[in-house]
Amino acid sequence: MSATRPRLTVDITPMLEDEWTGISVFTRRLVQALERSGRVHLDFGIRMTRIAAAEARETIRHGSGAFLRGRLNDRPIDAFEAINPAQPLLYPSVKENFGLARREASTIHDISTLVMPETHDVANVAYHLDPLRDQLTTDEVVFCVSEATRVALTDTFPWAAPKTRLLTQYVDWPGDFELLDRNQPTVELGRYAVVIGTIEPRKNLDLLLRALEHPSVAASDLTFIVIGRRGWLADQALARLRPQAQQRVKFTGFVSEFVKYRLLKAAEFLVLTSVYEGFGIPAVEAMSLGKPVLASLTSSFPEVIGDAGLFFDPFSVDEFAAGLKEISDPRRLAELAPKALEQAATFTPERMAAPVLDWIGA
Amino acid sequence: MPHTASTNGPTFGPRLLVSLPGSWLPRLKIPGSLFGRDALRDVVMPVELRAALALLTQEATARSTSMQFVARPEIFTHGRARAWLDERIGDARDHVALTDGHSLRPIPGLRNHMFFFPRGNPASEQALRNLLRVAPELFAGLASQINGGMAFRFGASWCRPPSLYLRLRQTPESGIMERLPFYCGPLGRQGMQGIEPAPPEEALPIDRPIRYIPLTEAALADTPFLRMVAQEVLEAIFGGPELLLLELPRPEGGAETAGRLETVIRALTATGIVFPRARSWAVQFVTAPPLGMSIASMLLHPGVPFWRYGLDFFDAAQRVEVAGSAAATRFRTLLSAWLERPVGLLRPAAAAGAPRVTVNDVP
Predict the structure, then answer these.
(1) Which residues of B touch A156 (CB under 8 A)?
(2) Where is the Glycosyl transferase family domain (chain A) (predicted)?
(3) Does residue A185 share a domain with residue A139?
(4) Count of domains for chain B
């Protein structure tokens, strides 16, 4: 059976990060979804060199690339083996090298570095944009993490449209979280909404902070737990608020997946103020726990959240306040909660693996 | 009343959408994704951007076109978000993307017009070239480029989005015109403090024809052009017939006269041409264009945002010339079409000194 399975090399460079967020987790989920399908034999690469499957799996168990990176740094040059150019090669993110394999595919998460470069640092813009044309040209298939990304990409590069496929990810809370959560004391933070994001401009957290002074938001008893680092920009923005309003927002800093799980599970709903997203996995995380989402009407959020949330103009404090009032109503929440579970359930490992398997003919 | 013309027919439909570069949004207090001109009223902005907005506003007013701003056109990618936008913009068919060169965000389905406003700013022009290299398709699909003459090779063919010429009849106010004597030497401890402007009540002398040269960062970075200007400065200082007025550039974020003056002096010093260590009123630095005066001639570098001057100013010039080490011929064509009058081309002389050595790649 396994002899007939097609082989695929996955570039796991994103998993070299110490702390896995965003694309590292996406890569891990992609690998696990493909392995779970049982329809493909995976090989692994980092840039142009092969990585033993055991090392890749061990890295996934660690949930950090620190060990693998250390080991690679100590490895003598003659111990490296080139990846097999005869088998398809998939990049879960940017493709920095071209033509290492005869058939290549890469993944576009968003084109924010092209359409809103001012929200990124210069090095990040160059990292994404410098190879973009070659990446699209040499790819046999271009995977896009949402329809929003696909449309944005192909509106800019219409010639790439026939190559594009959707590759949507899923949420996979560890199985023991539910039990562990039950064994912990109850989260006692009163009525609160979780907000995911930092104060960086693209995340538009400033809208929430400004909204705290809005009469209807000020009258609400809801607090906001922001999962994300509190930078100096946040301090600046908070300093503009009255002390009562400042008390309504709490920053957690970087938290473990389990703490995030607990905070989301005990929350009323999730707030996403971002002005642009490639996908928006926090929305699926919240929905998978039955939590509706109050999100900006932008890019991928409507397609990811569907009917399990409410939307607002990301530049309108009034619209945000109105949405907050509506979603804070317990009856509305009760209406939306089952839709949230239903919507989250549409994002599965099978759905993620399918377009890749289809590409390699598995 | 603006004077508006285009090489490709009438301009905009009943409603016009305008977007600003994303980097400007944090400076604005906007009520939502769509907003009116009022949100920009008290915002401090470069003269080029202000002039670009003035051009669009007056064009819209003249044609009874309503104007609406969209904060981030790129977020309305598809589906519900795009439907929301379409519902609110109604019958708008045209979108002007005011770009700083770092991004260009057309709205699919609309006629997109690009207005690159920081003409003459080297960093912005470089950003535009980078963007062109990464995504030429964005430019190839433009309905027009406003007051621009950009052309590029894309694959096997040349691409040049149609030019759309917008002109102001009157030059907008860009501050009080201060006049300072020419000086180019060591600045010393006092810096610019020792250089006093002419008293405001003292009018420009009318006994000599005026030659006007607006300087920009791009012009200052163009050594052959600057050498040519330096030669004209020397001629004027040593009894030439013309009074030379050099408009100080406005480096990004540096609106102070002292800083603007220092930028020019450093650039002129770097040409290696030696100037008398004395102040001369035969050549004057000015902080704004002299409006309402007859000008004998005007010399423009390709890096000048020429459209920020109104037709009144150009009409006051008997002769308009361009010069620059690169793109001067294309700029002459653009400016001549924009002004609808002949424009002269001056070629900077080759630098004196030892002949240049060219080495081929064969060892």
Answers:
(1) 135, 137-138
(2) 188-331
(3) no
(4) 2
